[in-house]
């Protein structure tokens, strides 16, 4: 195991990899992801995962995530922020998510380490992101691998539930704003009703007397300065061909 991991150690300095790397180093990091995802889920496989953890590879990867992740409040992430775009575009991030997924499958020590580092909210925010590097899908795969641990699954469910409730709250706030612009509101029963001021204005409207517009139904009472027009319907038609002929008298 030592010889195997010594082969990959040079490319596991993630900040250095972000700064500079060549195609051989990229291929080596790709192979490390393939290796970790191919580890068998048994005692022998777990011993290899334990050895990887002892080398602080998992610890360093989690520190990388917490160091570079945008500092945001525990609410919905602005997916168009420059900080987030810079984070998801980092070359090492997608590989970190991939090999953590492989290590987290059916391995309690890796699962607990990720949960203890308080990176679950960050990974959850990443799963809401769409990018060319498929960071969102990779983050979702990692969370699903962590869900095999019941205790960690509760943390993930709590974060996801909070996001759903926050989305609902923001949607309702936007709905109330749009209803307010239309002169309406939502009552305690969830029914959409007109505001009392609108109803009062409707009640104060009087009946028009005299001539009224057939379109808007308003007359000189409410529009005294406007001139009422007359709407007509016209149609082009041909005059009878025999109209110009004089009638013959027998």
Automatic annotation (TrEMBL):
Pfam family, one: E3_UbLigase_R4
PROSITE patterns assigned: UBR4_E3
Keyword annotations of the record: Metal-binding, Zinc, Zinc-finger
GO molecular function list: zinc ion binding
Signal peptide limits: none
Region ranges (UBR4 E3 catalytic module): 91-250
Domain E3 ubiquitin ligase UBR4 C-terminal, first and last residues per copy: 1-246
Cited InterPro entries: E3_Ub_ligase_UBR4_C, UBR4-like
Family: Belongs to the UBR4 family.
Listed name of the protein: Protein purity of essence
Organism: Anoplophora glabripennis
């Amino acid at each position: 195991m030592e010889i195997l991991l010594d082969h990959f150690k040079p490319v596991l300095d993630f900040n250095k990899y972000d700064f500079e790397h060549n195609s051989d180093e990229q291929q080596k990091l790709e192979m490390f992801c393939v290796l970790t995802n191919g580890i068998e889920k048994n005692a022998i496989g777990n011993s290899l995962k334990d050895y990887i953890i002892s080398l602080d590879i998992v610890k360093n990867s989690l520190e990388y995530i917490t160091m570079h992740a945008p500092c945001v409040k525990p609410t919905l992430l602005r997916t168009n922020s420059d900080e987030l775009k810079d984070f998801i575009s980092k070359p090492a991030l997608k590989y970190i998510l991939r090999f953590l997924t492989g290590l987290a499958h059916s391995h309690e020590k890796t699962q607990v380490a990720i949960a203890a580092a308080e990176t679950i909210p960050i990974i959850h925010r990443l799963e809401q992101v769409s990018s060319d590097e498929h960071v969102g899908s990779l983050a979702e795969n990692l969370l699903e691998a962590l869900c095999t641990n019941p205790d960690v699954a509760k943390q993930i469910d709590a974060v996801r539930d909070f996001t759903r409730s926050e989305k609902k709250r923001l949607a309702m706030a936007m709905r109330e704003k749009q209803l307010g612009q239309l002169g309406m509101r939502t009552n305690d029963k969830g029914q959409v009703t007109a505001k009392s001021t609108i109803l009062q204005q409707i009640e104060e409207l009087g009946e028009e007397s005299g001539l009224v517009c057939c379109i808007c139904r308003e007359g000189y009472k409410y529009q005294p300065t406007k001139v009422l027009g007359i709407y007509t319907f016209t149609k082009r038609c041909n005059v009878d061909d025999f109209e110009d002929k004089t009638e013959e008298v027998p």
